[in-house]
Structure formats: C-alpha cells, structure tokens
Amino acid sequence: METIVRIQPRQGNFSATQKLVDLEIPSDSGVVDLSQSYVALRISANVTDGSADTLESGVFPVHTGFNARDGSGADSTDKAFIQPPTAAILIKNASLMSSKKGKISDIRNVACLRTTKALLEKDEAELSDEKGLNGEVPKDQVLKVGNLAELNQGLEKSQQRSNEIQIPLKEIWNFCREDAYDTSKMGALRMHLECHFDKLNVGNSYSIAEFAKNINNDAALPTYEAMTNIVGVANAKTFQSLATYDSLSDCPYYNQMKITIKHNTAAGGQPDIVRQIVKVEHDATSKKINFEIDTEIQAAALTTTALNLEPVLPTAITANIENVDLVVNYVPVSNTSDEIQYTEYQTLEDNFSPAKTFQRNYHLAPNCVNAMIVFPSEILSMVDQTKGDNNILSYRIAIDNRELTNRRIEMNSATHLDLLQKTYANMGVPLKNTLLKIRKNNFPLDQDQNNQDPISVICFPVPNAMDGKAKMLTIDLEAGDTVPTSASGAFQLSGAITIYQEVVRQI
C-alpha cells in the first residue's frame, strides 16, 4: 500500500528575498517512488483594496503567474505575462545528494533547461492544459476565475483561498524518474533548491475594459456592464442585467464581488457608488441576471436614465508563500537494486560581446550523450527584440574537429529540426512540439501576439558518447538581420550562452 508523507523544509519562511529551500527524505524510512513525488508550494495573495468599504471584504479573481523579465528595464514587457510550460520554471539552481552515495546531480539555471524542454516535449493540448503555475482560466471563459479565489454564483459565498503549486521532482532532476529509491541502501536524499520566488507573480484576471465589451462581441447587443434602468425605485438593492444569458455561467459577475455603480439622471452623471454583490441568479423566463447588493443605492427614489456596473479592482496584490513541503510517495517494494543508472545535466555557462560571428571551443564531459545549447535572456532562451541579442541566422557544430553536417545549418531549417529529432530519439523521449513559441496570458491563443516570442535552441547527439573520453565542442554562430541594428549599424550577436550536457552516471 502506498503512503503519502509531507516533509517540511529546514527553513521556515519564504519570500522574494528568502529563496533557499533544503529538503530531505530520511535514511531508512522506506522505498520512495521519486517519479510520483513533488515539491508543494502553498501560495496565497495579499490584496489591497483602496475603494470604499462594504459590509464584507471584497473577493477578487486573483491568479498566480511568472515574470520572466531580467530586471534591467530594457527587455520585453511581454515577459511579465508568459504562460509557463512547467512549474519547474520556479527553480533557479538545484542540487541532489545521497548521504551514502554522495553527489547525484547539480544543475544551474534549471528554469531555462526545463522550460525549453517542456516546450519540446509537450504538445499544444498539453501546454494549454498546463496548470502547474499559471492560474488563469482560458480566454474564452467569461467568468475568469483565478487559482487564488473561489468564485460562486447563486446563493453560495465566494472567498479568497490559497493554492498549491506542485513541482514534480522528475521535472527538476532526471534521477527522480526512479520509482524505487531505497533509503536503507542509498541513504537520505538531500535536496537544495535556490528558487525564483522573486519572479512569482500574482494579478487580477480581468480589466474594467472587458466589462464594457458587447455580449458575444456583437455591437447590436448590450454590454456586460449595462443594467436595466430602475427609475422610480427607492431603497433599491436589486437590479437586472440588460443583456440576456443562456446560463448563469455566461455572466461574469459573482457573489462578494465589489462593484462601482455608475448611474445617470436627467441632470447628467451622478457620483459613483461602491457596493458588493451578495446574490447572482439567472431568471429562466427572461434569461436575464438578477443581482442583489449589500446596501441600497440610495433611500430616495432613483431618477436614473442609465445604470452600469463596473468591477472594483485591487490597488495592490502581492504573493504570500505560506509554506513549502516535500510530498513523498512511499511504495511497498521489497526487492530493490543496489545500483541506479541515470542521466544528469551538467552546465557550461559563458558570455560573449557583440560581434557579427561567434566561434568558441568547449570541453564536453566524458559520457555526454546529448547536448542542448540555449541563449538565456536571464531565464528564457529567446531573442529579445528590444536589445538585439541572440540573433542567430546559422551555425556549425563540430565534435573533435569533425563537423556534424557538411554545410552551415540555418536556424529552424529542416536540418536543424532533423538534429533535434535525432537528439530526442537518442534521449528516448518523444519529441512532440517544434513550434518553440512562448505563450502569453495577456493575449488569446489565436492572436498574433502569441507568436512573437520564439525560443532559440540547438540540440545534437554526441558521437561516440560512451567511449569514456572528454570531447572538444566547437560552436560557430552567424548573426542574422531580423533585430534592430547596434550603435555601429551592424547586426550582431551578444549575450549569454549555456550548454546543458546530458551525462550518463551510475550510483
């Protein structure tokens, strides 16, 4: 029978500045299925609401996200809205050690490695369903529910809530694909993580402008914000939508939502009034939505000529990391191996100054079977259009002075993709996606803005990998002309380069 155990870290507090996590699976505690174990982050939001008070605190559709900007202020603002393809993007550096067998793996810039691999190993449907970190509902939903809120209609109250983000251990270390780690033979398993908690984002899932849109984007239909005029009504606490809805779920309003009531009279616009919705119900006969608010609009009879509702938005939202746990899956296995063979990623990092070409040699580790070259703009391996770096037109790769191909390879060409396929065949992992585009949660999936941030990656299997010898890697890059010119007027390469070496090891 499987047993699930939660293990607390050595640290007690976590924040944007407290980013180190140390976790340990104790020695002699049983056999662990590492492939089903994960790091669990419990996240909530601190919401500041600067509007007028209501009888209860407002509830807001807050969601988690990831801000991939490098902090320079010069890179693309859209990096603040990426849709992470894996929750492992929260991990900066990670090391893994056995108390009896020594160091197992030590990876730098886990976020770049795992984000790049996830974009290759998940098809479009899997990327759309990825809910590890991004907590915003799909764009075609009217009621946008963030993962830090429970939004209800009818009679049930809405509430802010925390949410658990799960980072599978196997998405950090390849070693953790192991399904029978025997702690009596291998000893305690110690994990040290340096996290990107400073890049954990929280935000509201909609804007005021969205409520001013017409139903079904039909200009002949009312807007979401428009209500039926209730002229002559005194002590008004109920009102009705001007638009009709087939079901309650088509309406973007919910209980405990704070709203700004905007109304006009014959004398013109009147002062805004902040109230809270306490009941949202669907009228099956008229197909309109009936609303009830916490306090009447005014005691005297209304003389409205127009009535609209707008959502109140928080003035500030910050993330709160309540706790970090290791969730361990113990399994009833009695016959375990004394040896475990696995692959790990060893990292080579370098920087290069602006130039039209880049040529450099590196030493690959013995038993390196595959290599992945990325160009991180801090985290994402992407061309940064505002800075003009990583502008790769073509490349050559040579191992011990023998080129992999007899001609230069253009980025995203058939030859480039063929090398990618060969690499994944050598890994024994399905290659499901070659689009290599980062999605953004501030644009619908079908809009062009979601196709403007390509990922740059060069992959290749290493010839004669298992001969036990170190090898010399030669990289030759040529700049293209698709980004803004440098100060000298020449298109150039610049920035960081990282080589992830997949090395076969055994303990």
Structural summary, described in words:
It contains 5 helices and 29 strands. It has 507 residues and is mostly beta strands. The strands form 7 sheets. Strands 1, 3, 4, 10, 11 and 20 form a 6-stranded antiparallel beta sheet that branches. Strands 14, 15, 16, 17, 18 and 19 form a 6-stranded antiparallel beta sheet that branches. Strands 22, 24, 25, 26 and 28 form a 5-stranded antiparallel beta sheet that branches. The chain has 2 domains: 390 residues, Adenovirus Type 2 Hexon, domain 4, CATH 2.70.9; 104 residues, Beta Barrel (Elongation Factor Tu (Ef-tu), domain 3).
Assign an overall shape: elongated
Low-confidence stretches: 385-389, 483-489
CATH superfamily of the largest domain: Adenovirus Type 2 Hexon, domain 4
Number of strands: 29
CA radius of gyration: 27 Å
Total of DSSP H or I helical runs spanning 4+ residues? 5
CATH architecture descriptor of the largest domain: Distorted Sandwich
Strand content: 35-45%
What's the CATH class of the largest domain, please? Mainly Beta
Indicate how many domains the architecture comprises.
2
Structural class: mainly beta
CATH topology title of the largest domain:
Adenovirus Type 2 Hexon, domain 4
* Biggest sheet overview: 6 strands, antiparallel
Mean pLDDT: 88
Task: Kindly report how far apart the N and C termini lie.
Answer: 27 Å
